[in-house]
Design a protein that fits this description.
- The protein is 24% helix and 24% strand.
- By secondary structure, it is α/β, with parallel strands linked by helices.
- It folds into two domains: 2-154 and 201-318, 4-Layer Sandwich (Metallo-beta-lactamase, Chain A); 160-196, no CATH class.
- The chain has an eight-stranded mixed sheet with strand order 6-5-4-3-2-1-16-17.
- The radius of gyration is 22 Å and the shape is globular.
Length: 319
């Protein structure tokens, strides 16, 4: 599985960081999903192998501009690229009204249908190729959500040792057994597929969050997650200085929560532009040091165009 960061800045872009956008896909597979679409997201996509024709779902966490202002342009570019397949858009109800108003005001006609899902009314899951998508309400100045992605369509594996032990020779019948089909051998023996299929591995789970000042809201969902992607807009000192109005998390707050919840892999993003990548004054290093002081798991601070690989054993590495 791959997580690709298209923007890691909060509120407004910097010279090195665009505003929010994260892509998720299975390694080696073309279909992908997009979480948030800040202004300039489609330009960031030009630096990746991701195609708008392979985009199967867009999930908008909340209706603040740094998370959605890039969406009308991206939809238009998808049309210009020849897209015809339907596209699922999950987000707050106001998102549909805004997109339709943008289409009307700019005479934008899409050659593909949009399927809108109101995230506030989502009680089950949205199924797309290779994943299910569900949502968790968060705490912010406007309704904000985390999206939970759980992989599906796990490949079945055969118990090769048992097949050899029972003298079932390799060949086309193995492929049918792997698909769960019962077969009859040339010597007349019936073979039940379930007797030769290994247990499925546990599906991987990734949670990508919108803006949120209360990480504890994720407590019920995060226990079985392999990766948590969460904002760390401020260090604690700056969070105290700006007050509770912005309703963002500090590095300390999310790091403490992740530690208490035994999160294996934590990726921080959505950094205030006041934190520079280097030089004098406040830097991203300040956020990292604060997070590491309160979390001892596998910690990353995302950079634009970072690609993270999550293997089948749950190990996350930055490529």
């Amino acid at each position: 599985m791959e997580i690709i960061f298209l923007g890691t800045s909060s509120g407004s872009p910097t010279k090195s960081r665009n505003v929010s956008g994260v892509a998720l896909k299975k390694t080696g597979s073309k279909p992908w999903m997009l979480v948030d679409c800040g202004e300039g997201t489609q330009h960031r996509l030009l630096h990746t192998p991701l195609s708008l024709n392979s985009l199967q779902a867009i999930c908008i966490t909340h209706m603040h501009g740094d998370h959605c202002y890039g969406l009308p342009g991206l939809l238009a570019s998808a049309a210009m690229s020849g897209r015809s397949a339907p596209l699922t858009i999950v987000g707050p109800a106001a998102l549909r009204e805004w997109i339709e108003s943008s289409q009307n005001a700019t005479r934008l006609t899409l050659a593909y249908p949009l399927h809108f899902v109101d995230v506030a009314g989502l009680s089950g899951v949205v199924a797309v190729q290779g994943f299910t998508i569900s949502a968790v309400p968060l705490s912010h100045r406007v309704p904000s959500f985390a999206y939970v992605f759980v992989e599906t369509e796990l490949p079945r594996k055969l118990d090769i040792d048992k097949l050899k032990e029972d003298e079932i020779a390799p060949g086309p019948l193995w492929g049918r057994l792997q698909q769960g089909e019962d077969v009859t051998l040339p010597d007349g023996r019936p073979v039940c597929a379930r007797d030769y299929l290994l247990e499925l591995r546990k599906p991987r789970k990734v949670i990508i969050c919108g803006d949120n000042d209360n990480p504890a809201l994720l407590a019920e969902s995060v226990g079985s997650a392999n990766v948590l992607v969460h904002e760390a807009t401020f260090t604690r000192a700056i969070a105290d200085k700006v007050g509770s109005g912005p309703q963002h998390s500090s590095a300390m707050a999310i790091a403490r929560f992740a530690s208490e919840a035994s999160v294996a892999n934590l990726i921080l993003t959505h950094f205030s532009p006041r934190y520079k990548d280097s030089g004098a004054g406040l830097t991203i290093r300040d956020i990292e040091q604060e997070a590491r002081a309160h979390y001892c798991g596998n910690l990353f601070l995302a950079r634009d165009l970072d690609v993270f690989h999550l293997d089948r054993a749950g190990l996350l590495v930055r490529r």
